């Protein structure tokens, strides 16, 4: 069995006994499944979430049983097809090792290997956290526009030969501060997103239109502050008045599923696609983001918010009114956060026992 590939002695190893879990502030109890196997051979197509679910009752407990620190959670490029994950039942930990041969070599009790980062070809074949194909369109397109994001954004003020809409290779004339950037995305603000609790508009779901690149910047002293752009890709029709944002860097996608570092209590703001209910592998937005303690890979539990009902069994008030009581929230699934904005995040529904709807609760695991 091929072991870790490394460059020199540069290995990043999890301190399995000394490092505290970087989960939420409250202690978390991570329980292994009663039917957890002794080992799992990693194969192509596995995800960290799937592997976690093979051993653990709650996949978000993954960092706890490895004893991982924050850097290792952010860069978990240490599990590859062909490797074996052992369940060390005595220690209550998972370990990465080699298969046992006739001479006993590879016995995890002797090697005690922990997660490592291999530094050559980093992440090329590493096991991803979740199925990447589901979320790829959401990773680099703006999609969410929050308060202040539009301030000073470059905008298309004219089109080539006065055309109503632009397509690939057409010219667009743009005004605004480019801030040294050369590649941009075009978008158009769309549906307002309202906080289910405050009822205030907290952002807009933008329409992604395509990509543009600077052909010639406005020259100082030329009498014109208009830049010339070329449309390099068009997903929808691009026209006058549409706004531009600098192309974001390619995001790191392979984050370990983990609880947020601080307590989070959020609500589902919208379900992507405009439908009223969502199931497994569908995408929702919630009213909490990076400034509220969420990062990529954070896992939240989903609940149906308990309804407020009348208690006809209790004594009525002196006005003759029945007492109003709130029913408990009912857990319905898990949400994997894969993109964060300031106060809004996108999450992928991982498992559900009932359809998720706008207003449902998403909060830190208990």
TrEMBL record:
<dbReference type="Pfam" id="PF01476">
    <property type="entry name" value="LysM"/>
</dbReference>
<dbReference type="InterPro" id="IPR018392">
    <property type="entry name" value="LysM"/>
</dbReference>
<keyword id="KW-0732">Signal</keyword>
<dbReference type="InterPro" id="IPR052196">
    <property type="entry name" value="Bact_Kbp"/>
</dbReference>
<feature type="signal peptide">
    <location>
        <begin position="1"/>
        <end position="25"/>
    </location>
</feature>
<protein>
    <submittedName>
        <fullName>LysM peptidoglycan-binding domain-containing protein</fullName>
    </submittedName>
</protein>
<dbReference type="InterPro" id="IPR036779">
    <property type="entry name" value="LysM_dom_sf"/>
</dbReference>
<feature type="domain" description="LysM">
    <location>
        <begin position="38"/>
        <end position="87"/>
    </location>
</feature>
